[in-house]
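Subject: sequence -> structure tokens, single chain

Hey, anyone have a minute? Need the predicted structure for the following. Not urgent.
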Amino acid sequence: MQPSPVKTFMIRVVLWLPVCFAAWYYMRGVIGLPTFFISDALMTAWLPDFIKDIEFKGHLLNVVLQFEPPANLKVPEGQKAELLFTVNSLAYGYSIPLYTALILATPDEERAKWIHWIIGFVILVLAQTWGVSAEILMTLLFKLDAAMSAQLGFSAYQKELVALAYQFGYLILPAVTPLVLWIGFHQAFIGQLVPGIHGKFSR
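Reply:
Had a minute. Here:
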């Protein structure tokens, strides 16, 4: 008795997952570059008076801050206080090996696989950038000294939006985005796995 198409596909995904995650972790320094460049350009342009620089340390991003020093902090006159914290971009990037495993496990033409993967990679990098940027804002607003955070000038409503953006970028985007992309690209294949479902996606 031959296994069902769904079971065969799931076995392929399970076999590809450790390979993809190992390759992703081994190449994390290279794969993390696009997220670094976008996050660095975005955050330093948005908050140039507060974010002095973002340093690339493989999958770790060191955010260098500059603030007007609080009254209780002694800093030479005319200078700003500097502070550094680190964001782990891997926490938002596991969607990439997950999506890669789904693409590799799906029977398709080689050219189509590459096209789907490249488009998906770009979108997943943007989703990862969302998560990294939201964590940077969360740290600025909720984890620094209140006097320093107040210098950003965010309202209570804006702070709530940042908190929601962080939760969305940490809990939802990395897990859901690769599945949505894969479903969007492979409706015909899903129809073969589960007869009758393709029509529902097409409506």
